[in-house]
Amino acid sequence: AQAILAPVDSQHPPTLAPSKPHAHVVEMYTRFVEPGRLALITYGPCAGKMCTIVDIVDQKRVVVDGPEGVTGVCRHMMPVKRLSLTDFKATISRGAREKSLRLALEKDGIMQKWSATSWAKKVTAKEVRAK
């Protein structure tokens, strides 16, 4: 992990830059598209509802599920760009059934944690104002 520095003039050959032994690595993203990630649907017939990513189809599409009894979103495929990812993640395996998803959301208390955030409060206030 050493970089070659360009020579200042023709008399001095290029030298190796000292590597940084204690370089601090900063993680750029923390909200990854992964099974169990709670997301807000931003566009389409289910806009404004919460869903959970269940499976990844390809680079741009995922399978999401509410579950329908909890959030009103049935299992369907949608593009990632129509989702806003949250910080919350349930511990489920890829392609989990609706029952295991519902149990994982209840066990981790994901929906209660979500409703306590300021983002969720803003969404509900916006819905109340619209009505």
Automatic annotation (TrEMBL):
CDD domains: eL14 (cd23702). Keywords: Chloroplast, Plastid, Ribonucleoprotein, Ribosomal protein. Pfam families: Ribosomal_L14e. One of its GO terms (biological process) is ribosomal large subunit biogenesis. One of its GO terms (cellular component) is chloroplast. Residues 75-131 form the Large ribosomal subunit protein eL14 domain. It is found in: Plastid, Chloroplast. GO terms for molecular function: RNA binding; structural constituent of ribosome. PANTHER family: 60S RIBOSOMAL PROTEIN L14, LARGE RIBOSOMAL SUBUNIT PROTEIN EL14. Belongs to the eukaryotic ribosomal protein eL14 family. This is Large ribosomal subunit protein eL14 domain-containing protein. It comes from Spumella elongata.
